[in-house]
Amino acid sequence: MRKLFILLMLCFVCLMLSLLVYAELEDPSTAEDYYTRFMGQNISLNVYNWGEYISDGNYDLMNVNAEFEALTGIRVYYTTYATNEELYSKLRGGGASYDVIIPSDYMISRMIIEDMLEPLDLANIPNLSEVGDEFLNPSYDPDNRYSVPYMWGITGIIYNTTMIDEDEEITSWDILWDQRFMGQILMFSNQRDAFGIAQFRRGFSANTTDPDELKACLDDLKEQKLLVQAYVMDEIFDKMLGGEAALAPYYAGDAMIMMEENPDLDFAIPEEGVNFFVDAACIPKGSRRKQAAEMYINFLCEPEVSAANSEYIGYATPITKALELVDEEFAENPIVFPSEEILANTETFTSLPRETNLLLDGYWTQLLSSDENYSRLLVPVMLFSGIILVVGINVYRAMNKKKKQKYYF
Amino acid sequence: MTNKLRWYAKTYIGFILAFFYIPILVMIAYSFNESKSRTFFTGFTLDWYNRLFTNDLIISSLQNTLIIAFAASITATVIGTAAAIGLYNMNKWLKSVMLNFTYLPIVNPEIITGVSFMLLFVSIQALIEGINTSFGAAIPMLEFGRATLILAHITFCLPYVILNVMPKLRQMDKNIYEAALDLGCNEWQAFYKIVVPDIMPGIIAGFLTSFTMSLDDFIISYFVTGPTSQTLPITIFSMTRRRVSPEINALSAIIFVVVLLVLLTLNFYDIRREKHMLKRMEVRSRA
Amino acid sequence: MKNKSSAFPYGVWMVIFIVLPLLLVGYFAFTTEDGAPTMENISKVGEFMPVLMRSVWYAVVATVVCLVIAYPLGYLISRGAGSRRRTLLMLVILPMWMNFLLRTYAWMTLLENNGLINRFLGFFNVGPFEMINTSGAVILGMVYNYMPFMILPLYAVMSKIDQTTLEAAQDLGSSFVSTFARVILPLSMPGVKTGIIMVFVPSVSTFIISRMLGGGGNLLIGDLIELQFLGNAYNPNLGAAISLVLLVIVLLCMSLLNQFGGEEEMEGALLDK
To answer: Is C166 within the bounds of a domain?
Structure first.
């Protein structure tokens, strides 16, 4: 009897506590004027996001930016980039001022170290509580002082089943170095992802700072370059859907979307390990509408919004309640929401020391500018045609002079 | 020329025109394609045009492009015309120095002009921030966007205005201007009654060149643009990078038709003017 | 009318927006990130020698191809009758008014592995050929985009050659070949010169064509510069150094042309753009 009483008491306390917590959580969000307090003030926000990374109203899903504008009266200027490094250049180069950016984990910690991000006022982002516990306090931003998770996912290989042998099973990154697919391989056009693949393939850490290991990876990538058709990012959609290439490493979410549109495509997760990434919304230094920016970030965490985004772009949402709102089939998709087993074999990119970053930047430029197929004729041809040209022109001039002399004198 | 030669010539011209137009015509054809595929034609639709006109991004880019082109080309025409007149009156040495600098933006690779503008504007921003923090001043920040775009566009338009106006000044009969002064006009009156009408064709040509250059510029704009003012070429660039959408074909088709109409009108206008001239000459020779 | 002070605003403008930016490029090229003077950036450009060579090579090939194709065309247009001449000229100018990104994009759709050309050839059981993402595609893109810049100056100078001059040469017993070599060619030299500059300069500095048609794997100078400023390897100091080298290449090429191509003023030819 006593036991039962204690149990009941415990239940009651739990209930009260949860109610309290619930009330506390609900409060700011349900504050009537949370989203409308900037109405009519003619405020605008500059949002800088990855290409194809928000639900834009197609496929009967929510047009997130339009909804936000209608709800808050804040005008959204939405522009896109293709790689983390491009975003970094744009911010470092000064000039443009952005209010909301969505970099990946390693870039966030790099930006924190270089003091490029504004600390968030978490009280102004009540929906942070919607974010699943496993995505809070991540290693790249220990107290969520600067970032709120937007989407997460893993990398892998998307391939066209009609262009490889039927019984071929892709289990390794090695296939991207396979001579048989010369000219049919697409590759990431950003250094972190590209080197990451080489590192996974060799069994190195994806965050290695060892110059010898990086050099080895560079050599691998140079070797691979002979087989690579093009270095691309967002263009990959177009090329894989159109059957332009057989193999490409890419992000699982996009792969899922591509597979929906072209049934010949399939996705493989190499056994050596893949990259696990989280993209999170941040506010860069210099933003002058911080409160509105936080409101936008909060809006992205609304379960309905996050569910629409997740379904539209095919990436996994970190918002727990959004999982209940998405299509059931989508929520059970093993590519978008990989099993624990696969997740155990992933590695997250972390911020690298400055020297390693510089080394990588240099290696990347070197990789893209070296030309192993370099025509040996080039220099001789240029040299000789140059000489012939110079001689020819001089002879021509000399002849003209003579002629003139003949006529006039 | 013999008939055979003429035939060769015609074939040659035909081949080159085919080379010029086949890609464009293919693009236009696929703007009516029902599916998103760029290779298979599945059926006729006008849907992509419909989507294009409801695409906010494209409409606002178009607005931006027009605002920037008008602002830049009008300013460039005013400053450039004044500059041409000033240059015309300069001594040879100064004039040639100035003209050499004027050529620079034209002969410079566009990417270098773009990069140099970017460095300039970033430096100006640093300067403004420095002044604001150390002197407590409140100079508004020069943000990358419409302002930087207009400044950059004015700069690369200026040479075209000057180079269009200068020859007209040189062809002008100075005596008429002097006569006007002798007949009691003050300098200002003589200027806008004699000089301006005389060099007007040059000014208009300069303005039109500037306007079209500004409309079409991508490379320089790419380096000085900001988040709030995408011009049409920059929007096209981001469209070509993304997942394919036949909207882009529809856009090409529209631009092509607009350009075609403009050129046809100009051409027609030219022909009519020529006919008038011929008639006048005929009349005069008869008289 | 006699005063030159009306050029004053332009003078100021020129100093701020033409001279100063170029000086800034120089300043960035010779300093480190912290503003300390250094030669490091310039020396580092040596690493990219293959890129420089490749860019110059592609640009030279594209220029030569343009010249070879455009020269007869310019001549033919200039000899046409009034209305025909105008129509042809308009047809040459028309594509130039389309945005060059769209034109390049059009070629992408044609050249792809599953593109229209390969599918067309497929009907005859030929191919498929690997056309996109090759150096040939990049050069084709340059030729296609910049060809009108070659045709127009050539047309402009050739239309100034009086038909009677040519007739006179023929009357005096000159064959077509010698008329060409002694009259047409020398008289068209200024146009050739301008055309070469107008094609070579944008070709050598392009950064979009190589990305769209070349697959982004084999950079050209333009890509390299863009990479340092807005791309994946942020380093504006190095970018400025590469820009400086590119500028020198262009100026060198122009002074060479000026040395050998006669001393005509550029003004007139430029106007025809």
So the answer is: yes
Residues of C in contact with A379 (CB under 8 A): 53
C36 located within any domain: no
Domain for residue C66, yes or no?
yes
Question: Looking at the domain B56-268, which fold is it?
Answer: MetI-like fold (1.10.3720)
B39 neighbourhood in chain A, CB within 8 Å: 242
Q: Which residue has the tokens 């003091």?
A: A115
Cα angle: A270, vertex A276, A281; to 5 degrees: 150
Q: Is B70 on the interface with C (CB under 8 A)?
A: no
Alpha-carbon span C266 to C161, nearest angstrom: 18
Same domain, A232 and A364: yes
Q: Is the distance from CB of C244 to CB of C29 less than 8 angstroms? A: yes
Question: Is C2 contained in some domain?
Answer: no
pLDDT per residue over C145-194, tens digit each? 999 999 999 998 998 888 888 888 888 888 888 888 888 888 888 899 88
What are the domain boundaries of chain B?
56-268
Q: Give the domain CATH number at C172.
A: 1.10.3720.10
Range of the domain at C111: 49-271
Residue B52: C-alpha distances to residues A10, B247, B248, B254, C233 (Å): 61, 6, 8, 10, 35
The yes-or-no verdict on residue B118 having pLDDT over 90 is yes
**The two three-digit tokens of residue C215, written as one number:** 């697959």
Domain membership of residue A396 (yes or no) is no
Give the alpha-carbon dihedral of A372, A373, A379, A385, to 10 degrees. -160
Residue A5 has pLDDT above 60, yes or no: no
Provide ipTM, 2 decimals.
Answer: 0.88
> Is residue A402 assigned to a domain?
no
Say yes or no: A231 and A99 in one domain.
no
Which residue of chain A has the CA closest to B141?
A95
Size of interface A-B (CB pairs under 8 A): 61
CATH of the domain at A230: 3.40.190.10
Separation between Cα atoms, residue C172 and residue A235, nearest integer Å: 62
Same domain, A143 and A287: yes
* CA–CA separation, A196 and A187 (whole Å): 12
Q: Is residue A403 part of a domain?
A: no
Find where tokens 């050839």 sit: C121
Rounded to 5 degrees, what angle do the CA atoms C68, C69, C75 make?
Answer: 95
What confidence tens digit (pLDDT) does each residue in A272-313 have? 999 999 999 999 998 888 999 999 999 999 999 999 999 999
What whole-number percentage of chain A has pLDDT above 90?
46
Please tell me whether residues A25 and A43 are part of one structural domain: no
Whole-prediction pTM: 0.86
Q: How far apart are CA A173 and CA C212, in angstroms?
A: 26
Q: Give the total number of structural domains in chain A.
A: 3
Which residues of chain C does B15 touch, with a Cβ-Cβ cutoff of 8 Å?
none
**Whether residue A75 is found in the same domain as residue A161:** no
Best to test chain B binding among C16, C90, C97, C179 (most B CBs inside 10 Å) = C97
Residue of chain C with shortest Cα separation from A375: C54
Distance from CA of C201 to the nearest CA of B (A): 6
Instruction: Encode pLDDT of A26-82 as tens digits.
Output: 444 456 678 888 888 888 999 999 988 999 887 788 899 999 999 999 999 998 888
Do B241 and A235 count as a contact with CB atoms less than 8 A apart? yes
CB distance from C57 to chain A under 8 Å?
A: yes
**Count: domains in chain C:** 1
Q: At what angle do helices C221-229 and B110-135 cross, to 10 degrees?
A: 20
- Assess if residue A171 is contained within a domain: yes
B104 vs B158: CA distance, rounded Å: 11
| Pair A236, A365 in one domain | yes
How far is the alpha carbon of B244 from chain A, nearest alpha carbon, in Å? 6
